[in-house]
């Protein structure tokens, strides 16, 4: 995250708020797709697994001798990402990859504009703040404290965003696994986030798994405002 001046304690509260909404959005999509009875069974499994994972990480952070707000922000973001993965796997193990991707993509279609709204509330970004507004907003996403990204200006009306280090993909790489094919969700995620910052912004996928990519980034996205 770039060194902007902001209240980290307030951002911590906002991260918790966003993570909670993401959890509920996952449930809503699963209920819509499978019905309440099956959704509740999947929720029970998610709650059990996610609680165990998150509790261990929170206790580890609290017991740290040098606990600070940055560590708490990172802990909340990692737990948010872990909970997302638990939801995906719970649906996948219950009904298969196709259904899991369906619920995942639709959850991101709801969560991305919500997160953009949250970032605008936190930062005070105005409506239709253009590409500069989007650059700033990308620094306040939940991803921003656990992944590394960079921005390259192309023209006055476009820039490329690269995810240089992705926690999920890097973990898979360490285990000698293929990249997770996240392109379908990524197109929804980045497109909806950018549109919610400024409705004029167009999003183009430069490359995202299963696409091949260079070693120095996992995915890349071009944002532009047509002239």
Given as residue ranges, the uncertain stretches (5+ residues, pLDDT < 50) are 1-5
What CATH architecture label applies?
Answer: Alpha-Beta Complex
Counting helices, strands and paired strands, the structural category is alpha+beta
How many strand segments?
4
Instruction: Please name the CATH topology.
Output: H-NOX domain
The Rg value, from CA coordinates, equals 18 Å
Lateral arrangement of strands in the main beta sheet: 1-2-4-3
Strand content: 5-15%
> Which range best describes the helical content: under 10%, 10-25%, 25-40%, 40-55%, 55-70% or over 70%?
55-70%
**Coarse morphology:** globular
Write a concise keyword list for the protein shown above.
H-NOX domain, 227 residues, alpha+beta, 62% helix, 4 strands, four-stranded antiparallel beta sheet
Provide structural commentary.
With 227 residues, the chain is of the alpha+beta class. It has a single domain, classed as H-NOX domain. It has seven helices and four strands. It has helices at 8-34, 36-62, 69-95, 97-123, 130-138, 167-174, 183-197; strands at 148-155, 158-165, 202-207, 219-224. Strands 1-2-4-3 form a four-stranded antiparallel beta sheet. α1 runs antiparallel to α2. The longest helix has 27 residues, at 8-34. 33% of the residues are buried.
Condensed summary:
This protein has 227 residues and is an alpha+beta fold. It has one domain (8-224): H-NOX domain (Alpha-Beta Complex), CATH 3.90.1520.
